Amino acid sequence: MSHVIVVGAGLGGLAAAARLAAAGHRTSVYESADTVGGKLGVLERDGFVFDTGPSLLTVPAVLESLFADTGGPGGLTPTAVDPASAYRFADGTELSMPHDAAAVPAALDEAFGPGAGESWRQLHERSRRLWDLVAEPVLRQPISLAALAAMSLRPADLRTVAPWLTIDGLGRRMLPDARMRMWLNRYATYSGSDPRRTPAVLAVTSFVEQEFGAWYVAGGLRRIVDAVAARCAELGVEIHTGAEVAAVTTAGGRATGVRVGGREVPADAVVCNADAAVLYDRLLPRDRTRAMRRSLRGTSRSMAGFVLLLGLSGRDPAPAHRVFFPRDYDAEFDAIFGRRPRPVPDPTVYVHAPDDPALRPDDDSEGWFVLVNAPAHDPARGVDWDAPGLRERYAARVLDVLADRGADVRPRVRFTETITPADLERRTGAPGGAIYGTASHGPRAALRRPANRSPIPGLYLVGGSAHPGGGIPLVLMSAEIVATLIGAPGTSAEPSAAARAATGPARRRRSRST
Asked: Where does the Amine oxidase domain start and stop, copy by copy (predicted)?
């Protein structure tokens, strides 16, 4: 029986551990924090419970396939979020985006006028072709130059991928309404990126959310981590928390284990769920990682986030997921990715306020997760989020912005907890609190993201900083790729039946119990 060590117990690390253990490997996980989950965190205060990471699940079939492949249902039953999101624009226009893609054109026509729904339909059908092109050969497999080159040789495929276009450029080409372009550009932030520099291929994210729907797990999305950790325990995975890995050990040109707690633990393979920059800059001999460190230095760090967790008196009947756009969206990305990064003066504000009795102390209260995009913590060259008073000033600014946009909760606040990019760095180990590692900027963004198979034999990467990217579905896909690369018995290069159902050809599917 081979021994695999997983560094980090985020969702990607736990999912990889479950797959490897189910396939017969003895698997150990070492996590520096006192609990598992990574960015899928939770905070409890005064009877309120907050998810501190993702708030929506898309493509639930990918989660279903993880449990199906490792022993059966995980006890989770995602429920549809309808509307998936409600948007408010600076001119007062409101758009309630339905969960069901069939209802979207009518909603757009109502919000923006006749013709808006048809322009969305054309974009959606284009994205359907794109999804069918990239879902299996690109997202569910290791980075493949051959697969990408094959697309470039087929004129129709090349026109669909359109590597010369950005998301912003695609919107200007296909969406005549500026508000719709703002809606589309927001999907670049799902990878922590600037839509003016993000390849148009990543506009497929909007298709995924509308085609496969937006879902929630009662009790909060943190329950996904709990269920995967429970599956790991059932499979005999050893999970060590409060155990920071100091180094990945190497000998004879390959990974041989890890150094943790002052001792070396041998392994036949190592899977790293830590940020790729941490792996290549801190955990490996520097003479073995020059090329990767040089490659990572040539990429932009993804944006981070500034979070307010609000315990509120009273209840607001508004949709659970709301987005409040600024008048000047470009100014937001200039502030984050410009030469002199700064907190965004007039940011887009995202609010997650689930109507979930398990998350509040009584029926006359509710908890809000409030997120704004922010530059990463970088005291030397950018924003020092630990600077005295900055946390408090910016929290007050975000509440003022919400009030200006018609959602004044200041009289209802029982308490406020803040999470800055500096806090994210300390909690998750992500450098600067950059949520997605590197930003997806430039036409070769897919090739610049660290591969799941490292240049060092026996060492693999999983999680949001590696291929295929961040977000629950992609992180779970990365775990499946890694299990395949390691050669787990019973795992092949072909995705499972549940996985094939999840990713294409694209047809709308409803969730069932996982």
From this structure: 11-295
